[in-house]
Amino acid sequence: MVASRNNRHSKKAFAEFMMNRRRMLALGGMAAGAGTLAACGGNTGREEGGDGVSLSQWYHEYGEAGTQEAAKGYAADYPDANVTVEWIPGDYDAALASGLLTDDGPDVFESHLNRGMVEAGQIVPLDDLIADVIDDIPEGDLRRNTIDGTVYGINMIDDPQYVVYRPSLFEAAGITAPPTTFEELIDIAIELTNDDVKGIDFGAAGGTDRLGQHMINSLGLSFIGEDMQAGFNDPRMAEGAELVKRLNDSNALLLGAPTDWWDPSSMIQGLTAMSWTGLWTMPALQENLGDDIGIFPCPGFVGGTPTVYNGGWATFVNANGKHVEEAKAFTKWLWVDNTEAILDWCLSYGFHIPSRLSLREQADQLTSGPAAEAVAISEEYGWADNPDWTPAMNTAVNDMLSNIALEGNDPEAELAKAVETVNTELDGIFG
Amino acid sequence: MAVTDKTAEPASAAAGTSRRPRRRRTFGGRNLAFWYFVGPFLLGLIIFTYIPVGWSAYLSFFDARNTVTPASEDFVGLDNFVTMLTDENFRRSLVTFSIFAAIIVPITFASSLGLALAVNKVRIMRAFFRSVFFLPFACSYVVASLVWKMSIFAGVRYGMANTVLDWFGIESIPWLFGNDPPWFWLVIATLRLWIQCGFYMILFIAALQQIPEHLYEAAYVDGARPGWQTFWHITLPHLRASSVAVLMLVLIAAYQAFDEFWNLLPNSGNVPYARTPLIYLFHTSLGTSQDLGRGSAGALILALLIAIVTLFQGKLLGFGKPEGR
Known about the structure:
Helix content of chain B: 55-70%
Number of strands of chain A: 12
Oligomer: heterodimer
Number of strands of chain B: 0
CATH class of chain B: Mainly Alpha
Distance between the termini of chain A: 21 Å
Number of domains of chain A: 2
CATH topology of chain B: MetI-like fold
CATH topology of the largest domain in chain A: D-Maltodextrin-Binding Protein, domain 2
Largest sheet of chain B: none
Shape of chain B: globular
Largest interface: A-B, 58 and 57 residues
Number of helices of chain B: 14
CATH superfamily of the largest domain in chain A: Periplasmic binding protein-like II
Helix content of chain A: 40-55%
Structural class of chain A: alpha/beta
Number of domains of chain B: 1
Largest sheet of chain A: 10 strands, mixed
Radius of gyration of chain B: 23 Å
Distance between the termini of chain B: 32 Å
CATH superfamily of chain B: MetI-like
CATH class of the largest domain in chain A: Alpha Beta
């Protein structure tokens, strides 16, 4: 789940907006009072009448214009069932989690796989749907949707995350090539910082909410090892954390920008020379900065490789829905067979990489310029979520980095603490 | 939730006492009228508060991940409570809250009392001044957070606070980032003060108007001077019941801090140095985590803590005793 939660922020701009305590309590309370409420509420997301069964399909709120109409269009084109698209604004995760606990949840929904959903019997295996195209699905996309050898989700889109920069500012400062190590990144960020422009924007948390995960992948470590214990208990992690502290102490970070990293505004407004971002911002960046855009992967830590986080969304079928077979048929029709819709979904609004190797070659927008570069680094350096990695474990790694970089705590002690927290979680799940 | 429900009471009770004799009805149907007014509220309270509270008490004894109806073999006894109480992050969130309460409770109390005294003294445009200070209470924490975050305390050089600092040649401050120094407390405290002071001011004004004028007149006859002397010996003792109520409400509201932390701080408030108890519980049991067993245990611990502190505070300050005794 991991940094996908970071990624989810990208589309969740509005979620932050809409979130308030009353809404949260209402959702929490609804989990309990759902039976009562469902009896009162008329609209359960299904429309009766017409041929065949009625299915409901849930999406989180995509920020790009036209996405909702597109999703509804695909559903309307489906001949064998009446599919109603529910566009869920606000905190999608909480709404979905509550919905799945009731009888009125979606039949088909997008989400991110985690073991809890499987163990609670909320989703059905989808191996048979992708059997014919399994070789066409990138391995990472397959792995992140697989638990104990069974595929539960079909990836809809890949959203690689990387650093975007202004080549013109690099040239003016005499910097010839993008950094390949995190030390170089810090030096360049300091070099480019002046009164008006900061070196780099890593988001509101100064990168402490994602760099730990990148470090683990950069160093060739794993979130969870073969022995089902934390796979990142390595002294180089403590060294890497010191680098993040150096960056945080350097005055080169853009902090307190009105928008967070998933919004390209700080780049477009010229507040920063470099920024952490994702592929979805590419159209907006190109429109505003023209050719003055370059990208590079997150540089390597302590002798490790560069890394790119491959976020994205996958589609699932609710095991407790009333029409599981029909829901599976619809899922196969839309997210496996309907390559035209998949390409439209990926390219016509924001930019996403299709989770099908053969479609990537057909996508003109992704075969040239920085977008092509994004596809290339995503394939070369990409890592994806591990469905056994829980938000609690992710928080442990974020806290470690925050405590080291922002509060100056002892790196080794903090690493030991994070490892212990993750191991306790893992023991609770697998022990 | 409970806060807003309770806060309505002192004001309406104060207003009700003076009117009751005139509105007494002589024919039957008073019971019906009672249920007509109380019924919907009570029903809501049962459905949205008592049932979920009872249910979460039940869940807290189970390993309930991604379910609200755990199977009987998932019964884990008190494990969830032990986990939460030994969880460093949960305990740290209670410390965060304590800092928050230590800042916000005394300042809210002093400012709303000060405002009430000032507005009560004003002879012209009273309604205007009361409304002006009360209006922010109608603003949602989310909207206010956005204003505070994006315009007043934006960390970039064109943020309002930073623009002012710039006039004095002071460098921009990233108000909402990090813990060294913890500028975010300034942002969070000013926001909450702005929103809630007006409400408590109204409670104090209601109480101030209950103090008989003749007490002051008698005091002046006896040679007391207006100002500090009468405030200390007449006004404050007569405000005791209201003061205790306000202190309690402010404290409970502080325990429940969520909105502004969620909206103002990085990563939806999920940062180790400023996680409030509710933010912590949200990330444990709602959103993607869905560990409802532990979340429920944590919520019960928190509820118990609030109950204990409130009862203790009430005992200490004499909650429920009539004014001025």
